[in-house]
Amino acid sequence: MIVFVALIVAIGVTAALTFGRFARSDGWRATVTPLASIIGSGFLICGPLLAREFGSAALAAMAALLAIAYAAGAVIRFNIRHAEAHLAAAGFNDPVAWLARLTQGVLSLAYAVSVAYYLKLLAEFSLKPLAVDPTWQPLAANIIVTVLIALMTLLALGGSLRKVEHLAHGTVSIKIGIIAGLLAALTISWIMNGAADPLPPVKLSLASIPMLLGLLITVQGFETSRYMGHAYPAELRIKTMRHAQWISSAIYLAFIGLLTPFLSRAAATDGVAGILDVMELIAPALGIFVLAGAIMSQLSAAVADSIGSGGLVNEVSRRKVSVPLAFALAGALAIMVVWLTDPFEVVALSSRAFALFYALQCALALIVSIKDRKGTVLQRVGFVAIGVICLVAVVVGAPAEG
């Protein structure tokens, strides 16, 4: 029954998002891009990791992480409205223009690292149900990721980048449908069985903060609205970025909340693909849902971030480096990250890279606010506070197993 309801819900939501009238509107298209980036497999890995680190306070920890992300989103929205206008009129040597170029350079590197993160998780989820010797599993995962990056790079260099991009965007509706199916399965299991296991004790300490900040990458992606000015006006991007963060926050909180009866089991799972163990306890066939959702989430997000990185390098280099070549450079960096780190370290490394980008965006917002007399004193205080939090994440963001 659980699997049947999950399947019906998944098909229904996917059909609505694919064929609904609103699905063809500019508003939904502008929402889908940041939403697709925010909802990677973060909603899958956060449950076990937060359960292990925070116990039954996992939902509160998730809410805190989302609050930090929403505050960072508010900074990006300020920059869409005010910094973009300033930069449009600024000369090449304007200090604000140089700071903006620095933030773009950091973001292009962050995107390259995030590609390693996405595909590393894809490999981990793919290998989870296979009888691979644990000794050889890291090597097998690295080989899978390297092959995927090489194939994407060949497609980009071969002139098929646009087709790859369309394919990545086309998986978003299916991905959200699968998530809806998983939420429905958890809801039915809660109704039928209740909290069968005793909840783990609440664990809150200063030592948990680095791990929480190390998970910033799992709720990142809203900043893509900042670089969609070629397709959508500023006010539409501001509104749809806000909508994307609302929708993704609701999904994350619902998932962690519905996972509450299984927090003890989630905390006992091993590895970033531990949610597979939890869902298969509810119904063995749900493992297929998790695998399908994870693989499509990671592949589409990796392609999107690779393209984003290529576009940014192209822009920062003032069109001297072509997008396909920049795509290849980002792929080479991602392969280096894959072979030099483990999955947990990639999560923290990606979080630090994006946290640095957000900190620089806070500095950009503060300078523009003062220089152009935009915003309020309270907003400027907020820019400083959010920037400090992001800098702390850069310094102390820890691997999830740490």
List keywords for this structure.
mainly alpha, Amino acid/polyamine transporter I, 402 residues
Please summarize what this structure is:
By secondary structure, this protein is mainly α. The protein has one domain (2-396): Amino acid/polyamine transporter I.
Describe this structure in words.
By secondary structure, this protein is mainly alpha-helical. It has one domain (2-396): Up-down Bundle (Amino acid/polyamine transporter I), CATH 1.20.1740.10. The protein has 16 helices and no strands. It has helices spanning 2-19, 26-38, 42-54, 58-89, 95-127, 137-157, 161-170, 172-193, 209-214, 234-258, 263-268, 275-282, 286-316, 323-340, 343-371, 377-396.
Residues in helix, %: over 70%
Number of strands: 0
Major β-sheet profile: none
From the alpha-carbon coordinates, what is the Rg to the nearest angstrom?
21 Å
**Helical element count?**
16
CATH-scheme architecture:
Up-down Bundle
Regarding CATH, which class? Answer: Mainly Alpha
Mean pLDDT: 79
Shape: globular
Structural class: mainly alpha
Order of helices and strands: HHHHHHHHHHHHHHHH
Q: Which helices and strands occur, and which strands form pairs?
A:
Blueprint: H1 2-19, H2 26-38, H3 42-54, H4 58-89, H5 95-127, H6 137-157, H7 161-170, H8 172-193, H9 209-214, H10 234-258, H11 263-268, H12 275-282, H13 286-316, H14 323-340, H15 343-371, H16 377-396
